[in-house]
Design a protein that fits this description.
- With 337 residues, the protein is an alpha/beta fold.
- It has 2 domains: 225 residues, Rossmann fold (3-Layer(aba) Sandwich); 64 residues, no CATH class.
- It is 32% helix and 16% strand.
- The protein is built from 10 helices and 12 strands.
- The strands form 3 sheets. It has a 6-stranded mixed beta sheet with strand order 2-1-3-4-7-5. It has a 4-stranded antiparallel beta sheet with strand order 9-8-11-12, with helices on one face. A two-stranded parallel ribbon has the order 6-10.
Length: 337
């Protein structure tokens, strides 16, 4: 029996949300936990499939506040203080665990950095709860950190728990967002698979005209000094376009955004070389709908958006998991017939 693939996002969203019994369509993957939840990139994607969040956690108090406001679920705090027995049973475990130990922007200390040990808190909870599937997200530099040994250790730990594991680097540009943001996704399943069915990219990119606000507040504009300096250094072929200044001071521009960064300079990215990206635009660049309400300062949402999981990338990972589970179920059914 050939497994029938899910329709492309967002067609999946409406069909699954309208189902009276979505569990069959989802292969039984219906309840999820959202660890290191941030503002809920995984939550947005999973909700669109009709899944239910039963637990979330994040150490950041502001993040917990905006998450609770938007999803009606108050995340717990520091994962070190969370006992595995207090995490409800679930089918799918999400974790966008802290990327600073592996990021090219940081010092790439990997597991020698205390934040890197947070991965082993994931292992602790997975060992106790044994969910059907796991989806992890991190920066692409995880692949090369410590000459590949960090990723190898992560995969080995998951395999040691009995999971079948696959990973891939995806770019948000390939999944419809006007943002060049490459992230590694790691999928781990109890179900067996020969080759994990990652959804293909190549989705049409949403144009910046559908992302940029028409009348942004004046507070978002850069100073005349900065604008004049950018214009003197660069002539852009793109309008609208987003100008990018790297750490070496080189300036370039594109009809999309380079990756949002939580700790970057306020003027790291400038729309048309003139103004900073607004909080709403940041959320749109990460795939969050306008129904997501902003309840914090510009500085906080800039940090939160910069740390978020792009919603379409999360959706791609979920779709791959559902397809893999359905294929495994179909194989077992045909073998038992």
């Amino acid at each position: 029996m050939k497994n029938k693939r899910l329709p492309a996002f967002p067609a999946t969203v409406k069909k699954v949300a309208d189902l009276k019994k979505p569990s069959k369509h989802l292969g039984g993957i219906t309840r999820f936990v959202d660890m290191f939840c941030g503002i809920g990139g995984f939550h947005q994607a999973a909700n669109a499939f009709g899944m239910e969040c039963v637990f979330a956690c994040d150490v950041d108090e502001e993040v917990r506040r905006i998450y609770n406001h938007n999803y009606g679920l108050e995340p717990k705090g520091d994962i070190f203080r969370i006992a595995a027995k207090d995490v409800p049973d679930h089918d799918l475990f999400f974790a966008g665990f802290p990327c600073q130990p592996f990021s090219i922007i940081g010092k790439q200390k990997g597991f020698s950095d205390l934040r890197g040990t947070l991965f082993f808190e994931i292992v602790r909870i997975l060992d106790a709860k044994r969910p059907r599937a796991v989806l992890l997200e991190n920066v692409k530099q995880l692949k090369t950190n410590d000459k590949g040994r960090t990723l190898e250790r992560i995969l080995s730990e998951l395999e040691g728990l009995g999971y079948n594991v696959a990973w891939k680097i995806l770019n948000a540009l390939d999944y419809g967002l006007p943002q060049k943001r490459e992230r590694i996704l790691i999928a781990a399943l109890q179900d067996k698979f020969d080759e994990f069915p990652w959804p293909e990219g190549g989705k049409p990119m949403k144009p910046l005209t559908e992302v940029l606000e028409k009348n942004p507040d004046k507070r978002h504009y850069a100073s005349e000094h900065i604008k004049n300096r950018r214009r003197a250094a660069h002539r852009s072929k793109h309008k609208p376009g987003i100008w990018h200044e790297n750490k070496a001071g080189n300036i370039s521009s594109y009809p999309f955004s380079c990756a949002l960064r939580a700790g970057a300079s306020y003027n790291y990215l400038l729309v048309n070389g003139e103004r900073r990206i607004t909080p709403r635009e940041m959320l749109r660049l990460q795939g969050f709908p306008d129904s997501f309400e902003i309840t914090c300062t510009d500085n906080q949402i800039r940090k939160q958006a910069g740390n978020a999981v792009p919603v379409p990338l999360a959706q791609a990972g979920i779709e791959g998991i559902i397809n893999a589970v359905q294929a495994s179920q179909a194989t077992r059914k045909s073998q038992s017939a």
